[in-house]
Amino acid sequence: MRRAPFDYAVVRLVPRVEREEFLNVGVILHAPTRGFLGCLINVDEERVRALAGKVDLLAVARHLDGYQMVCAGDAKAGPIAGMPMRERFHWLVAPRSTMIQSSPVHGGVCDEPEVALRELFARRVG
């Protein structure tokens, strides 16, 4: 099997946007030649509270659930979830000034996108 190109971005929680401090909470990976769009998310509540004690973690969880539903193409996420995979990826990683943001998009190649996603998640978030 040939190696597949992919793009990825790190999902960041920015509890107080005005301070520009963030925690990495996930990774979104898109490997178009393999028809893969996936994300892994995990919020370390203790680290969030240390950075910004009064964060509404339920609101954060709802926003991040939305990211996962859009990524998976779940109709519950609304019309965006019905867009083609490439467009969903670009919507997910578009610049935002909200408490959930993404890093710049980076590229790479892999044998298996699922494995690359887990490895990137372990390095960037874990």
Structure description:
The chain has one domain (about 5-125). About 35% of the residues lie in helices and about 25% in strands. The chain is built from 4 helices and 5 strands, in the order βββαααββα. It has helices at about 45-50, 55-70, 85-90, 115-125, and strands at about 5-15, 25-30, 35-40, 100, 105-110. Strands 1, 2, 3, 4 and 5 form a 5-stranded antiparallel β-sheet that branches. Strand 2 and strand 3 (about 35-40) form a beta hairpin. The radius of gyration is 15 Å and the shape is globular.
Strand-helix topology:
Blueprint lengths: L3 E10 L9 E9 L4 E6 L3 H7 L5 H16 L12 H8 L7 E3 L3 E5 L2 H12 L2
Antiparallel strand pairs: 1-2, 1-4, 1-5, 2-3
* Number of alpha- plus pi-helical segments: 4
Query: Hey, roughly how much beta strand do the residues contain?
Result: 25-35%
| Mean pLDDT across every amino acid position | 94
Major pleated sheet: 5 strands, antiparallel
Number of strands: 5
**Succession of helices and strands:** EEEHHHEEH
